[in-house]
Amino acid sequence: MAFLGPLIKTALSIHENLTSVTDHVKSQEKVLRNMLITAQDTSFGIYYDFDSILESDDIRHAFAKAIPFYDYHKMNDRWWQQMKQGKPDITWPGVPSFLARSSGTTGKKSKMIPVTDEMITAIKDAGTSQVSALSNFNLDPSIFEKEVLVLGSSTDLDHKNGFTIGEISGISASQIPEFLSSFYKPGKEIASIDDWDERVHQIAIQSENWDIGMLSGIPSWIEIMLKRVMEYHKVDSIHDVWPNLSVYTSGGVAYEPYRSSFEKLFSKPVQIVDTYLASEGFIASQQRPETDAMQLVTDGGIYFEFVPFKPEYINPDGSIVEDAPVLHLGAVKENVDYALIISTVSGAWRYLIGDTIKFTDVDRAEIKITGRTKFFLNVVGSQLSVLKMETAITDLQNKFDTAIKEFTVCAKKNKGEFYHVWTLGTTTEVSEKELASHLDDLLQKANKNYKVARSKALKGVIVNKVAPEIFSKWNDYNKKKGGQVKMEKVMKEETFKEWEQFCKSTIT
Predict the structure, then answer these.
(1) How far, in Å, CA of 119 to CA of 82, rounded?
(2) What are the structural domain ranges in the chain?
(3) What is the pLDDT of residues 351-387, one digit of tens each?
(4) What's the pLDDT tens digit per position in 11-36?
(5) How far is Cα of residue 385 from the mean position of the Cα atoms in its chain?
(6) Which residues pair with 414 in a beta bridge?
(7) Cα(421)–Cα(436) distance, integer angstroms
(8) Which residues, in sequence order, are CB contacts of 425 under 8 Å at separation 6+?
(9) Which of 142, 486, 183, 91 lies closest to 83, judged by CA?
(10) Does domain 386-507 have CATH number 3.30.70?
């Protein structure tokens, strides 16, 4: 009989009760005030007169009025470049130890985002809160004695100009305390292997020596890893290798499109728990089993603001117009799409992270990610968010009893007419024409703006099927594999042309 598991679960439950936030609005005000106090003597704080903001009767309004919106390039060019040259006290006291290399979607050039010691602490605290919340789920206490496999980026970090550089998952894994190392897999040696395929191969070799109870990572890469472990051991279920696997902490992209393919890998129930860890910080995690929505980390070194995600407030490049209305947590409404703005203890201020969210429960500060500001498909007024696309794809999977784990779409002009051209990663035998017809029908029923667009400027829908593995090959082609890498859901015509050529050359 296991005695440690029940004790750990009880301790986590106590921690959850003692540390859970009951008033998220007040918590956010406290976070903002503490951040302004800490950074008031930095170059940024002096330039924007944080002292005056702190003296205001309403610091949230004064803060929003005094400081413009920043995206990465504006923040980096005007402020962070000075910090990267070694100058202290630019947007946050001192000089950060880490730079997070952001490679979330396939692009040619990575961003380098500062990660301060305060942010490392905030991420650890949020991770502890997430683990504590597992006590709310109906899990066997023995699970809390098992090992945790985290499939992130390499922990073999680069060192340049006084900074330690890597993806945020690699940075976080490199900071795991020594007393937890016995629970953490694949362990520091394997986790430091830079080549993703070799790292996964070593995981497969060592997998039979581990008693994994929990998994963590982006679905697309976790699925590939699980299949390789199963292939190595010649088994039909991952539970033949890890019989106690009971929890999968997903993140980075929506899990739902992967659900059916994951279930084929499991022979026992696995609790799915969603998280939202970005290069800029730990933003949200699922806290209870009654919903798959995630609760914002309102006490963790991030202050949140929200801009209604409407076409008139968004520039063609995905940035926000300067006079767009902005709301604090106490003024948002449920089921409205918002562009997410964050200010952090890493010295990001009123920063457009690029994600859009909606609230499912305002009082609990629970959200769902609805897409990306740059991946919003509105060329002809269709106003399609990624969430609406993913919902339609899930419905399409259910209708034809098939798996469509990856997709990308582009609004293309052909002979003066606009079409939405979709590439679906699937092995289904259903014809492309039939898939296009049903996808078009699903979107028209679910989205009135799309339906109006279809009656006017949007001529139709075209679907092209490709093998699912082509999407991961595309990431490999772009030198972005594993870790935090996510596939672009909406492509511009120039990129989509390259993508179509890549698909043809890979098939032939």
Answers:
(1) 20
(2) 386-507
(3) 999 888 999 999 999 999 887 776 666 666 667 777 7
(4) 545 555 555 678 999 999 999 999 99
(5) 15
(6) 417
(7) 9
(8) 404, 405, 406, 407, 466, 467, 468, 469, 470, 471
(9) 91
(10) yes
